[in-house]
Amino acid sequence: MAPGDQVDPGTPSEGAEPPPGAEFYLDLAKRLKEAHRLAESLPEGVRIPVIRRLLTVTEAVKRDPVRGSERLDRMLKEISSQVDESSTR
User: Fold this and answer.
1) How far is CA 33 from the centre of its chain?
2) CA distance 50 to 53
3) Predicted pLDDT at 7
4) What is the value of pTM for the model shown?
5) pLDDT band at 10 (very low <50, low <70, confident <90, very high)
6) CA–CA separation, 49 vs 35, rounded Å?
7) For residue 1, which of 7, 19, 35, 49 sits 20 to 30 Å off, Cα-Cα?
8) Cβ(50)–Cβ(79) below 8 Å
């Protein structure tokens, strides 16, 4: 490669926007950590399937951070409601 040559980072998938800067990834990491913390507080019968799904979401984040982030948001809402239900029982 000659000096000044640019590397083509590849073309993003159609309709997908590149993820924002470092703040996006820091926030994503915090939300993943929070989801795992919430999942650990669930009763065992619920916790194991939730953690399996959460691992799938974590893998999705690695492949497509924007879509994975959307899945994580939905899952956080779901986990939060389950944590609220289990704490009132």
Assistant:
1) 9
2) 5
3) 47
4) 0.66
5) very low
6) 13
7) 19
8) yes
Helix 22-40 and helix 44-63, axial crossing angle in degrees, nearest 10: 160
| pLDDT tens-digit readout, 49-70 | 999 999 999 999 999 999 999 9
Q: Is 30 exposed, middle or buried (0-12, 13-18, 19+ CB in 10 A)?
A: exposed
In the block, tokens 């799904």 appear at 53
The 3-state secondary structure of the chain, one letter per residue: CCCCCCCCCCCCCCCCCCCCCHHHHHHHHHHHHHHHHHHHCCCHHHHHHHHHHHHHHHHHHHHCHHHHHHHHHHHHHHHHHHHHHHHHC
* Spatial distance between the Cα atoms of 66 and 26, rounded to a whole number of angstroms: 13
For 41, residues 6+ apart whose C-beta sits below 8 A from its C-beta are 83, 86
Q: Work out the average pLDDT over 11-33.
A: 75
